[in-house]
């Protein structure tokens, strides 16, 4: 595919207090081997107070900066960027990422397939050695795993694209025609699980969700939520409930009754087999066994607690957010 035939790509980045990461993210995108006249970079700042928006305005004049007066959440901020974009392909990218210089070319190789609607990338930890995600697979309602998470790049050598249930929203390419057909991100999610929801809606509309394993993105992970870890857990479990309530309510009872049992059994099985992501990563890095077990126990307790809390608060959130429906449609 020659430069003139390359599709216009719009990259939308939501920034919220990303001073530590935003320079590296934008510099890596600008250094990508993709025609600059076919590339649009939009940063939507969610009322940062760390000066990161000033860094963008001052150091990256080629970037379109949109400043929100308040934090509208990850979903709505992305929607604002999508509405302002002009590309045929829209890439949603987290601010705590940096990219391989060929990542966009690898995405473009697959996106022309008319059956493909969403493409995810191979997400690596910043050291470039350990895989964070190669898409997601749903095991049972409300529970999905990141494919190849915790493995090294040598242990998972898949190079051909493959179909998945969902892709991680940290780096996700979406055809504009898909947004036109099924609507934008559901802003009610605010943050977390919105990627699962958009992929589910895409597959329901007849589109494939694909991983391009040669499209490599390095991701620090939940950088904006480091100061608010408990809120992250609450949003995660609240939104799992919402996702099922919204998309397949007939499975809601299975989720409420079955999730804690299945989650415990899967967690125990993976622990005994040393197949948890924490164990996989720890086995490749120097770390004391006691600290590993302590970390895993803490994660299990938090997951269980916030699952229960999400059920207690569910009637309130349903009344607040699901009194009316409808998704935006974007045109250009």
Q: What can be said about this structure in brief?
A:
The chain has 332 residues and is an alpha/beta fold. The protein has 10 helices and 12 strands. A hairpin with a 2-residue loop joins strand 8 and strand 9.
Report on the structure:
α7 (229-247) crosses α10 and α8 runs antiparallel to α10 (289-321). A hairpin with a 6-residue loop joins β6 and β7 (131-133). The protein has two domains: 3-224, Spore Coat Polysaccharide Biosynthesis Protein SpsA, Chain A (Alpha-Beta Complex), CATH 3.90.550.10; 229-321, no CATH class. Helix content is 41%, strand content 20%. The longest helix has 33 residues, at 289-321. The chain has 332 residues and is an alpha/beta fold.
The level 1 CATH classification of the largest domain is: Alpha Beta
End-to-end separation in angstroms reads 24 Å
Give the % helix: 40-55%
Put simply, the count of helices is 10
Structural class: alpha/beta
CATH topology of the largest domain: Spore Coat Polysaccharide Biosynthesis Protein SpsA, Chain A
- The general outline is globular
Descriptive tags:
12 strands; two-stranded antiparallel ribbon; Spore Coat Polysaccharide Biosynthesis Protein SpsA, Chain A; alpha/beta; 20% strand; 332 residues; 41% helix; disordered C terminus; ten-stranded mixed β-sheet; 10 helices; globular; single chain
């Amino acid at each position: 595919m020659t430069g003139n035939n390359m599709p216009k790509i719009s990259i939308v980045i939501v920034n919220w207090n990303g001073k530590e990461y935003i320079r590296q993210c934008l510099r890596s995108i600008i250094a990508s081997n993709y025609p600059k006249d076919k590339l649009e970079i939009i940063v939507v700042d969610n009322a940062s107070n760390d000066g990161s928006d000033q860094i963008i305005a001052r150091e990256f004049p080629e970037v379109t900066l949109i400043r929100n007066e308040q934090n509208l959440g990850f979903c709505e901020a992305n929607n604002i960027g999508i509405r302002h974009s002009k590309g045929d392909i829209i890439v949603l990218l987290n601010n705590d990422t940096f990219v391989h210089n060929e990542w966009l070319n690898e995405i473009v190789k697959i996106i022309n397939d008319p059956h493909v609607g969403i493409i995810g990338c191979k997400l690596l930890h910043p050291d470039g050695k350990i895989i964070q995600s190669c898409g997601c697979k749903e095991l049972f309602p409300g529970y999905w795993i990141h494919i190849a998470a915790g493995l090294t790049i040598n242990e998972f050598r898949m190079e051909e694209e493959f179909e998945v249930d969902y892709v991680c929203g940290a780096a996700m390419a979406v055809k504009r025609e898909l947004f036109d057909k099924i609507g934008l991100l559901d802003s009610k999610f605010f943050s977390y699980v919105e990627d699962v929801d958009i992929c589910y809606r895409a597959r329901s509309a007849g589109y494939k969700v694909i991983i391009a394993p040669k499209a490599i993105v390095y991701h620090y992970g939940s950088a904006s939520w480091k100061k608010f870890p408990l809120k992250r857990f609450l949003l995660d479990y609240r939104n799992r409930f919402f996702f099922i309530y919204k998309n397949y309510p007939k499975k809601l009872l299975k989720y409420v009754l079955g999730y804690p049992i299945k989650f415990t059994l899967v967690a125990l099985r993976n622990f005994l087999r040393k197949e948890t992501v924490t164990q996989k990563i720890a086995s490749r890095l120097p770390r004391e066994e006691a600290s590993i077990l302590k970390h895993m126990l803490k994660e299990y307790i938090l997951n269980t607690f916030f699952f229960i809390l999400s059920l207690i608060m569910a009637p309130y959130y349903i009344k607040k957010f699901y009194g009316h429906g409808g998704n935006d449609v974007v045109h250009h």
